[in-house]
Design a protein that fits this description.
The protein is an alpha+beta fold. It is about 30% helix and about 35% strand.
Length: about 170
C-alpha cells in the first residue's frame, strides 16, 4: 500500500478503541473540537455500538488497518427533526490535506442521504478555514454565527453554524 492510500468504510465495533485514540488525539489539539479530550473508552465503545445498532451514518478512513479519521451524521431524535442530522468529523494531523476529509465527507453525506437525512447541520470554529472550505465545497452554507462562543487558552473563536439541505426548496 502506498503511503497516501486509504479506504473509507462503515465503522465496526472493533474500531472503537482506535476511534477513541483518534478522537482523543484531535481533541487534545484544543483547536478543532469542542472537547479537549475524549470521553472514556467505555463511553466511546457504547457510542459506536449504538450507532451501529441504529444503522447511523458513521464512517472511518483507514490506512491499512490503522484508523486515520472518521465522519458521522447522527439524526436528531426529537419528533419533527428526524430528517436532520448533526455532522462530526476529524482527521489525524499527519493525514490532513491529503483528501481524507473530502472522501469521508462525501461518503458520509451519501450514507446519511440513503437513510433519509435531508438536512445536515454542523458547527465549526471560525479559525478552521480548511474545514469551512471543505464544507462549502460540498454545498454547506452559513446559517449563523455564535460570536466569541469559545474562549480557550486565551483565544476567542466564533462558532459558525452551517447546513446542507438536499431535495428541499430553500
Amino acid at each position: 500500500m502506498k503511503e497516501t492510500e486509504f479506504s473509507v468504510a462503515p465503522i465496526r465495533a472493533e474500531h472503537a478503541a482506535q476511534f477513541h485514540q483518534v478522537l482523543d488525539a484531535i481533541a487534545r489539539e484544543r483547536i478543532y473540537l469542542g472537547q479537549t479530550e475524549a470521553r472514556s473508552p467505555a463511553w466511546v465503545s457504547e457510542f459506536v455500538a449504538t450507532n451501529i445498532k441504529h444503522d447511523y451514518a458513521q464512517l472511518v478512513a483507514l490506512h491499512g488497518e490503522q484508523m486515520i479519521g472518521w465522519c458521522d451524521i447522527l439524526p436528531h431524535p426529537l419528533p419533527g427533526f428526524g430528517h436532520g442530522g448533526t455532522l462530526g468529523m476529524g482527521v489525524i494531523k499527519s493525514w490532513r490535506g491529503q483528501g481524507v476529509g473530502q472522501a469521508l465527507l462525501a461518503a458520509t453525506i451519501e450514507s446519511a442521504l440513503s437513510r433519509g437525512i435531508i438536512r445536515v447541520e454542523l458547527e465549526v470554529y471560525a479559525g478552521n478555514a480548511a474545514a469551512i472550505g471543505l464544507y462549502r465545497k460540498h454545498g454547506f452554507v452559513v446559517e449563523g454565527v455564535k460570536r466569541k462562543a469559545r474562549i480557550l487558552d486565551g483565544r476567542h473563536d466564533d462558532v459558525i453554524m452551517m447546513a446542507l439541505l438536499v431535495g428541499m426548496d430553500c
